[in-house]
């Protein structure tokens, strides 16, 4: 179907062709160009040739217009096919999964119809004259003539009203002397319909242990949402089923932060000049509620150093080169595996440190040594910042790694 714009263009072209044709006829009737001083009239053949030229121009216009429209349609179909291919690739559908198209073969011969069943003519039914279906042929049934009344019989008065039957003036006084002895049952049925109490939905899990107890844990799923505050403020955590030293399995709630990878520390000489500043995907209130709902929490911390002190005291200062900040914002001068504010590392408790210091890094070794261990003070976790120093020299380097918060 042509659009409105094409219809207007066609009408304009037809009108122009008509005017052009009339103009040619007028020129042929009047006169033509003057050649060699004489006037020459157009012949009928010249007019026919001009008319054919106009018709050919009209045909070319319509042909190229339709061809351009078909080209546009084919381009749109190609774009749709490319977009469909992108969607199929995104959905994981491949060509071998798509069923083959059914070849539609147009029959060359007209379809053969089944032969029509022969129509059985209805038998003609003749009715007797007395049961003809036409009611006009029925004769009226004769009515019986009433017999005349006997002589000397009074004529009945049709206007006289019938006499009413008198009502009885006395009521029957006989009453039943005995009353039925059947009485209603005095006892009520003890069986009552049993109603099932409404089941309350289970509470929203606060930790991964609650998820495991409610049967919602799946090894194929890593991330879960818990609500430690029970205020529909969810925290996305990882749930891991870890083996314990006693041989049992416990569900662990893992909260990660933005500085999970190892960071290089160099060019920071002053005490606590380097700052790690990890960011957790939970608020302080949610983290405190998670620690309160768990039996125990821990966070692993590791420092690999070369010529960089950790728990040593810098000159003219009262604190240590390195320390970490707890959830309450307090500085803790100790390392993983040692009590809080003891200015020691794990090796300082059993006397296995390199050199005479309380940490391996305090020996200023020319080779890399490591101080690592878990921080187990639940009321202080998670670690909100790690501060380090003594890495201003060319050969003084450190690598810090802070693990996620893990709560049982």
TrEMBL record:
Bias (Basic residues): 156-168
Keywords, in A-Z order: Signal
Signal peptide: 1-37
Gene3D superfamilies listed in its UniProt record: 2.60.120.1000
Region spans: Disordered: 99-209
Skewed-composition ranges (Pro residues): 108-121, 143-154, 195-205
Biased composition annotated in UniProt, kind: Low complexity: 170-194
Descriptive protein name: Uncharacterized protein
Source organism (scientific name): Strongylocentrotus purpuratus (Purple sea urchin)
């Amino acid at each position: 179907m042509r659009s409105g714009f094409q219809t207007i263009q066609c009408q304009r072209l037809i009108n122009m062709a008509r005017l052009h044709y009339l103009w040619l006829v007028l020129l042929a009737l009047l006169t033509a160009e003057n050649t060699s001083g004489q006037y020459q009239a157009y012949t009928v053949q010249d007019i026919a040739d001009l008319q054919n030229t106009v018709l050919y121009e009209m045909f070319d216009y319509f042909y190229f217009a339709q061809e351009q429209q078909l080209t546009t349609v084919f381009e749109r179909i190609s774009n749709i096919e490319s977009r469909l291919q992108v969607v199929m690739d995104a959905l994981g559908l491949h060509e071998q999964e798509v069923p083959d198209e059914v070849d539609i073969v147009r029959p060359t011969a007209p379809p053969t119809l089944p032969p029509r069943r022969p129509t059985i003519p209805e038998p003609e039914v003749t009715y007797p004259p007395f049961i003809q279906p036409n009611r006009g042929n029925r004769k009226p049934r004769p009515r019986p003539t009433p017999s005349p009344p006997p002589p000397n019989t009074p004529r009945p008065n049709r206007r006289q009203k019938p006499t009413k039957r008198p009502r009885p003036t006395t009521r029957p006084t006989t009453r039943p002397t005995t009353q039925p002895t059947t009485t209603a049952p005095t006892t009520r049925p003890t069986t009552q319909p049993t109603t099932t109490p409404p089941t309350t939905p289970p509470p929203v899990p606060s930790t991964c242990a609650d998820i495991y107890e409610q049967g919602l844990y799946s090894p194929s799923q890593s991330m879960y949402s818990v609500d430690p505050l029970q205020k529909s403020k969810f925290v996305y955590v990882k749930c891991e089923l870890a083996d314990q030293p006693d041989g049992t399995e416990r569900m662990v709630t893992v909260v990660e932060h933005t500085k999970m990878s190892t960071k290089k520390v160099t060019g920071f000489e002053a005490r606590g000049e380097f700052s790690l500043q990890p960011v957790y995907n939970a608020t302080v209130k949610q983290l405190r509620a998670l620690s309160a709902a768990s039996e125990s929490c821990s966070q692993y911390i590791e420092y690999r150093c070369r010529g960089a002190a950790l728990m040593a005291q810098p000159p003219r200062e009262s604190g240590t080169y390195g320390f970490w900040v707890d959830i309450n914002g307090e500085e803790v001068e100790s390392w993983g595996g040692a009590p809080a504010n003891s200015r020691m590392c794990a090796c300082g408790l059993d006397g296995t440190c390199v050199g005479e210091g309380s940490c391996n890094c305090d020996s200023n070794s020319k080779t890399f040594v490591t101080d690592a261990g878990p921080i187990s003070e639940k009321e202080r976790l998670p670690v909100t910042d790690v501060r380090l120093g003594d890495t201003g020299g060319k050969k003084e380097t450190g690598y810090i790694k802070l693990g996620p918060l893990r709560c049982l």
